[in-house]
Amino acid sequence: MDQNKILECMEEIKAIAQSQQNRMTKEEVHRYLSDMELKEEQFDAVYQYLVTNGITITGFHPSRTEGPVLSSTETMYSGEPEVSTETDGSQLQENADAPRRISKAERNLELYRREVSALTAHSGAELSALWDCFLSGDTSAKDALVHEQLDKVFRIAKTYEKRGIALDEMIAEGNIGILMGLERIGKTPSDFRVDQAPDLKQINAVIEEEIRLAIESMIDSVTIAKDWEHTVLAKTNLLHEAAKYLAEENGRAATPWELAEYTKIPLAEIHDIMGLSEDAKNISKTK
């Protein structure tokens, strides 16, 4: 079995699953790998590999969720099933009581929260004085003002958790939003004063708006990229299946013209997909 081919398929399946909120059924996996003639134990290795990459496979119940991913991929290639170990009740209880290993993203998030908690918050009068300095053109107050908003970034990012983007990535974008807000305020400082005092209510509204704009912009970009990737993968699979069918029917490789007529995908788009996909190796580029 071609290791590069199956790894390529794994990446495609992972991308498709990500567009489906990291969920996929066993039947879908079988369909995407139907031309590889895998044995059932090899499919189990595929499921295990996907699960260890954060994808939920409906109908599959892994015997273990930890362990090296390499052993699962080796099973795919060799055709030999992984050696399973029998566990009694005490071992299962021990595993259940063992602390869950946290991901790198979770560790980074916890470190961020600790750093934010360790920062000294300024009182109302101190915060007003810092903003007064900033509005007067003293940029030395900028770092302290940024630190004051970090907890706000975490709180706002939490409201977008169901959008399928890692919390630490949204926080990173939200932190950029703080800087954008400070830049916006610094351009027209007089607009953020009331009776010569800093208008903290308006200032906070602008900072929060910029944080949300930064996070939402990042979410939109990721979503558009995933949608595009999913569309390309779907059309690539369609072309691959069409090429196999036409080759069997005609006794030769299908031409792009024939594929365009059969799939109703524009010819120019077929050429673009052929340039992106390894599956295009099976398609004749002659007209």
Describe this structure in words.
The chain is mostly helical and 287 residues long. It is 66% helix and 3% strand. The protein is built from twelve helices and four strands, in the order αβααβααααααββααα. The strands form two sheets. The chain has a two-stranded parallel sheet with strand order 1-2.
Q: Could you give the topology of this structure?
A:
Layout: H1 3-18, E1 23-25, H2 26-32, H3 40-52, E2 56-58, H4 69-78, H5 89-97, H6 104-118, H7 124-135, H8 142-158, H9 167-187, E3 193-194, E4 197-198, H10 200-250, H11 256-263, H12 267-276
Parallel strand pairs: 1-2
Antiparallel strand pairs: 3-4
Helix pairs in contact: 1-10, 3-4, 8-9, 8-10, 9-10, 10-11
Gist?
This protein is mostly helical and 287 residues long. The protein contains twelve helices and four strands; from the N terminus they run H-E-H-H-E-H-H-H-H-H-H-E-E-H-H-H. A two-stranded parallel sheet has the order 1-2. A two-stranded antiparallel ribbon has the order 3-4.
Which outline best applies?
elongated
Low-confidence stretches: 64-87
The proportion of residues forming helix, as a percent range, comes to 55-70%
Oligomer: single chain
What is the residue-averaged pLDDT? 75
Total number of helical segments? Answer: 12
- What's the story with the biggest beta sheet? 2 strands, parallel
The SSE string, one letter per element, is HEHHEHHHHHHEEHHH
The tally of strands reads 4
Strand content: under 5%
What's the gyration radius in Å?
27 Å
Largest beta sheet: strand ordering: 1-2
In terms of structural class, how would the helical and strand content be classed?
mainly alpha
Query: Gap between N and C termini, in Å?
Result: 32 Å
